[in-house]
Structure formats: structure tokens, C-alpha cells
Amino acid sequence: MAQLSDDCFAFGGPMMSVDEAVGLITARVSAIADLETVALVDADGRVLARDIAAPLPLPPFTNSAVDGYAVRNADLPGQAERAFPLDGRIQAGGLANAAIKPGHTARIFTGAPMPPDAETVFMQEDVRIDESGQVVLPPGLKPGANVRPAGEDVPQGHVALRAGQRLRPQHVALAAAFGLNRLNVVRRIRVAVFSTGDELASPGEPRAASQLFDSNRFMLMAMLRRLGCEVSDLGILRDERSLLADGLKQVAGRHDLILTTGGVSTGEEDHVKAAVESIGSLVLWRMAIKPGRPVAMGIIDGTPLIGLPGNPVASFVTFVHVVRPTVLSLAGSPPEKLLPIPVRAAFTYKKKIARREYVRASLRRGDDGVLEAVKFPREGAGLLSSLVETDGLVELGEDITGVEPGDSVGFLSYAELI
Ligand code: AMP
Ligand code: MG
Predict the structure, then answer these.
(1) Using one digit for the tens of pLDDT, what is the confidence trace for 273-288?
(2) Which of 46, 176, 250, 349 could covalently link to 403 via disulfide, CB atoms 3.0 to 4.6 Å apart?
(3) Phi and psi of 116, rounded to 5°?
(4) Residue 238 beta carbon below 6 angstroms from any ligand 1 atom
(5) Is the pTM of this model over 0.90?
């Protein structure tokens, strides 16, 4: 389990920028050292635990890139076309033991090994067979054309996959190309998830008239699973300090991270802070981010705790900036910088300087074909439908004070955020 010191997340400043928050997290959370071996088919989404150096070159042998005819470079037609007697036929998976004879050509297919001494392949579309059955090759082809040399993709010994890499299908493919069928990965990060609030009922259970169904817990668990975590669903904690403290205390030490939602503002019924303080240590991070309110960071028995705000959109946005880098750090993955893509704003917006704001937006193509961001018409941080009906978030940096239609703004798709 993660073992962090009590003052690990302490922060002196009045308001923390998003970059400061991410910097603090990535500097102080140390990676889980435990690893496990998984079958390659189960490796997608896991974090690689060890570097992988290519055990063989890719491609493993020099082969033809096309269906066609192989020749020696010395025989390449210079000025005029030239007829070659056909000598040999090599299919993909076949052997090419016999060297190609001078002045001859061999029929060859895509992926078939080049015969010894053959260095160039003519595409079959560029070739004709004359009445005597000879293969007529045109002039002007570059030596080495249409051949894939051994190791041109990855040379043998090259470190092609790095420890800390979150594996995507293309990484799995590369490992497969190396012949590996099992990979060493970091064990899943174990996260305990609680919602807090007397007003919450679990989906599937009865709901009193003054209650709403708990949506954040399911959103957060889904986001955590997308980050490869093993999630313990610990339900809803009531707004009572001692109950909260008992619930949190029970899971500390058995998880790498505790995540709560709700109860971290400064209202009388926001008990998460007091509960954490009674059994561990706590700081409130007032982050200069909208939507988002204070995020609580704490340590209970060496286990880090993150308390997210209760409003669903604030919970979503602060997850991306606080929980995601924490989980990646715990798994030993380098921080992934989110890179907004430039799009044209199709909205007006006023904003405070020195605060980063995220505007929920949909993309559409303008009349001139340029991508435009259309702002969701309403702003409340409680509007779950705003996350469902948009494509992502426009990121407005600390320096910006407003947006006018036509301005270039940075857009982060939900697909990239999580
Ligand atoms: P809080 O941060 O506890 O003051 O909650 C802020 C708002 O978010 C309140 O309107 C809560 O009802 C709402 N809220 C808190 N937790 C959840 C949750 N798990 N799912 C949906 N809404 C929530
Ligand atoms: Mg609450």
C-alpha cells in the first residue's frame, strides 16, 4: 500500500493553480512497486512494469512489400525495359533458400522473404509478360524499392516499450510482434469509493421524497476503472462525523487511495474534513478552477484520501485534475499532459483572471469547414445532462478574461480526458 507522510499534501498558498496541484501530487505520491504477470490478451489498459527491449528485429527478416517480381540491383533496367526469364516463386511463409541467378527474376508475394542477392521488387501492376513468357520490367525503379529490410521498424535490442507506459492496443500489438505472450504489469491500484450525503439513495433502492439517486459514485467508479483501478464500492456514508470517520478508518491501509464525493465545502453539514482530521491529517486545497470547489487531500494511516466536491460537474472536472494524476503516479506512469486542440469559439464568455475555467461544449463544423465549439446553454455545476449532451471541455487558461465568437480556444474531448 502507499505510505505517505501526514503533511504530504500540505500547501501554504491561499489558492492553488491546477498546475501546482498536479505538480504537488506527482512529486509526492510514490509508485506502487508490486507487479504481476498478465496474459497478453488481458494487458490492454494496464501499466507496464519493466522496459521491453526488442528480442528480435522487426520485421524479423527482409521481405517484399508488394506482390511482384524480385531482381538483383545489378540487373535493374537502365534506360529501356528489359525481359527477364522467370526463376522461382516465393510465397509469404515460404523459404527463399536459392539465390536469384544473375539476369533472372523471381515471382514474389507480399511478406515473403527476399531470396539471397535479390534487392529490389517490381510491383506486378508495373510489369508485363511477353509472348515467350518472359517478365518485362520497366526502367527507372529505384534500387531497394518495395523491400522492407529486417529491423527497419524496430532494430533488435531497441527499448521499444517503457516501464510506466499505459498499454493501448498498439502497445499490445508490439509486444505480440516480439513473440511475448505474458507481460509484467503494475498491480491494479486499489481505490475505495464512498459517496457522502443524507440526501443520497443508491440506484435500485427506495428513494425518499427529499432524496436523489447517487450518481457521482457510479461516474467515479467508471472513471477509475478506465484508469485500470480495482474499485471497492463502499456505498453512501451518512452526514455524521463519527460514521464517516469509522467508514474511512476501516478501509485505510487496505487500499492505495480513498476517494469520497460530497461534504468537503465549508457548510455545517460538510463533515468529511472533520472526520478525516479526527483519524488522520487533512488539508483543503482551494484550487483556482471552475467548476470545482475545494478538494480535500488527506492521509489516513499512510493512505492518501481525496475528497471531491458533490456537484457532479465539479466532481468530474476535479477528478480529471487531481484523481487522475494521483492514480497515474501511484501506478508509476509519467504524468500525461492534456493537450487541448485549437477550435473556433462559437460563444461569448466572461471569466475571472487567474483562474482556469472549463466550459462544456459540443463540436460542429462551421460553414467554412472549421471546427467550432458551441457552449452548453446553461452553467450549473449540478447539471449532469450538460456532460451527456456535450463532446468535451473548452479549457480557458488563467490569463484569459473572456471569449468572443471567432476566438481560437483549446478543446479537450471527453475521450482524451478519461
Ligand atoms: P456537497 O458537496 O455535499 O455540499 O454537495 C453539493 C451538491 O451535490 C448537493 O446538491 C448534493 O446533493 C449534490 N451531490 C452530492 N453528492 C452527490 C452524489 N454522489 N451524486 C449526485 N449528487 C450529489
Ligand atoms: Mg453533502
Answers:
(1) 999 999 999 998 999 9
(2) 349
(3) -50, 140
(4) no
(5) yes
